[in-house]
Amino acid sequence: MTPRAPAPARLRPPRLGPRDVLHVGSAGLRSRPVRVFLSALGIAIGIATMIAVVGVSSSSQAKLLEELEKLGTNMLVVTPGQSMFAGQDTKLPKEAPGMLSRIEGVESVGTTGDVAESVRRSEKIPKEETGGIAVKAAKDDLPGVLRARMRSGVWLNEATSRYPAVVLGHVTAERLGIGGPGGQVFIGGRYFTVIGVLDPVPLAPEIERSALIGWQAAEDLLGFDGHPTAVYERSADDRVAQVRALIARTANPQSPTTVSVTDPSAALQAKAATEGAFSTLLLGLGGIALLVGGVGVANTMIISVLERRHEIGLRRSLGATRGQIRVQFVTESLLLSGLGGLAGIALGAAATWVYARTGDLPWVVPLWAVTGGFAATLTIGTLAGLYPAVRAARLSPTLALQAA
Amino acid sequence: MTTAPHTPDARCARPVVELTGVTKEYPGGVKALRGVDLTVLDGELLGIVGPSGSGKSTLLHIVGTLDRPTAGRVAIAGHDVAALSDRALSALRSRHVGFVFQSFHLVPGISARANVAEGLLYSGLSRAERGRRAAAALERVGLGDRMEHRPHELSGGQKQRVAIARAVAGEPDLLLADEPTGALDTASGRSVMELLRELNGDGATIAVITHDQEIAASLPRSVRIRDGEIVSDAWHPYPRPGNPPPPHLPPRPGPHPERPEEAP
Does the keyword Amino-acid biosynthesis apply (chain A) (predicted)? Predict the structure, then answer.
C-alpha cells in the first residue's frame, strides 16, 4: 500500500444500482422458497378473489351487452295506455300500424292484437286453465321487427294466416308440451295446427308466452275486433328519438295521450348494469383476505429480520448504510407481495376463464382490476415491509454481529 | 494528534488508526475502555490480546467504526470519526476497513466468489469489476480452485480464507481480524495466521484481536489489554527478515514476555 495524501477525501457512500437492489432484496427469498410460497399465498388468495369477483360480473355484463348489441336498441313498442277516465279501456285505432310505418325513419313494423281466448292442449281441459298463455293475432313482419327466429317450423304466411294455424312462443310450447310443428291445440272452440315454434325473444317476453295466429283467422274464426294491442316498430339508430316524439300523435290522432310508448332495450340495459355491479360483499371478503395476506407478509419480514441479524451486521460492517439496509428489506417485502399479487392475478383470471367457459360467456378481466389489484399488493408490500426494514436499519451493528 | 515520527521506511509513514484517550461506557455504568491510546501505522501487523471481558471486542468495534466512543478521539485513515455521520461512517468502512470474524459470517447458498463479491457490493464498483476482484482475491488466498464452491462445501479453514478474501478484496487500509482462528483446529489456524502474515508482507495493515497469547506472541507487535486499559504495548522482532519495527514504539529490550527463549 502506498501512502496517500494526508487530507482525506470526502466520504460519500455510493448508491446501489437497481440491479444490485434487486439482488440484495431477493437474496433472502431465494434461500427460503417454502416460506416465500406460503406468505405470498395469502396475498395471492386475496387478489385472486377480487379479480375473480370483478371478472365474473364483467363477463356476465359483457354477455348481456353483446346480446343487446345483437337485438338492437332501436325498437319501440306502442301500446294503448291508460285512459284519463278510470275503468275505460283505450284502444289503438286499426290504422295505427299503417300510420306508424309511414313516419319518416321507421324501417319496419310488426303488430299483435290480443284475442280473448285461451289455448289448451285439448277441449277436455277446462277453459279457465290458461297457464298464463295469451292468444294473439299477429300481422306484418313481426319476427323481422323482433329479430325473432324460428326454433322449428315456419312463420305465418299470407295463406296460413287465414286458416287455423298457430305459431307458439317457446314458453308456450314448453307449457303445452309441444316439441315442434305438427300437433294441434284447442283455441276458442276449435283445433289449430301448430306450424312453428319461436326461439326466445328477449326484447318481447310477452311473445314468448303467446300463441300467435293469423290476423285474418282471428277475425274470421275467433271474433277478434281487429284493434292492435301492441305495435313493434324499428327505426334507424339515430332516428329513434325523433320517431318517438311523433308516435303518439300518429298512432292515435284523436287522443294521443292514451298511447303508451316503451323501449324494451332499456330494461335489458338496466339488467346489464346490475350484472356489472359486482357483489360488494364478495369484494369485501377479497379485501379482507388481502389484508390478512399483508399481515402475513409483515410477520414473515419481522421473522426474517430477527433471523438475519448476523447478515445485517455483516452488511453494515461491509459498508451498507442504514438506508441501504432499509431498501433491502422493503425490496424483499415488495418482491414477496408482488409475487403473490402476480400469482393472484393469474389465479383470478383463470377462475374467471373457467366460469366464462362453463357459462358460455365472453372472458373479460378488466384491465383496471388487474392494475388496481397489483397496485394494492405493492402498497401492502411497502407497508408490511416498512416497519421490519426500519427495525433492521436501527439494529446496532455490534449487537447484530454478536454470536446469538 | 500524535505527530508521525520520521522514519526511513516510507511504508510506515502514515497512521491508519489513532486513538487518543478513548473511553467507552455502556449504559449501566460498565466501563469497557478507560482512556486507551493506540496508534497503528500503515503496514503494521499487530495483535490485540486480552482475556474475555478485557474490552478488546469493544476496542475492535470502535476501531472498526461500528461503535462510537463515549469520550476521546478516534481517527481512522485520517478521518475523525466523531465528525462523521452514520452514512459517512458506512462509506469509511466500505473503503478503509475490512473485517474478518471468528464465525466467518459467509452467506449460505451462494458461491465463494459471490460471497467475496458481496463484500464489494457497497464500494460503488461495477458488477463486472466486483467479480474480477473477487476472483483475484480468492486466487490470492489460495482458493483459486474453489471459486464456485458453496460455504457448506468448504472446510473451516477454507471458509475463513474466503472471509479473508472478502475483507481484502476492496484493498482496505486496515484489516481487523476478530479471533480469526477461534473456530478452527490448530493446523487450519496456523495456515490462516500464515496467510495474514503473507498479506502483511504484501503491505496490508492487520490487527488481530485474540485471547490467545501464543498467537499474539507470534506477531511483530502485541498490545495487551486488561480491564479496559492497555497494560503493555511492545514489538518484538518477527522471525522474518526485513520486517521493520514500528517506528513510534521503542524497541523492547530483553526477551519476549511470553516466550523468553525467543530472545532477539
Answer: no
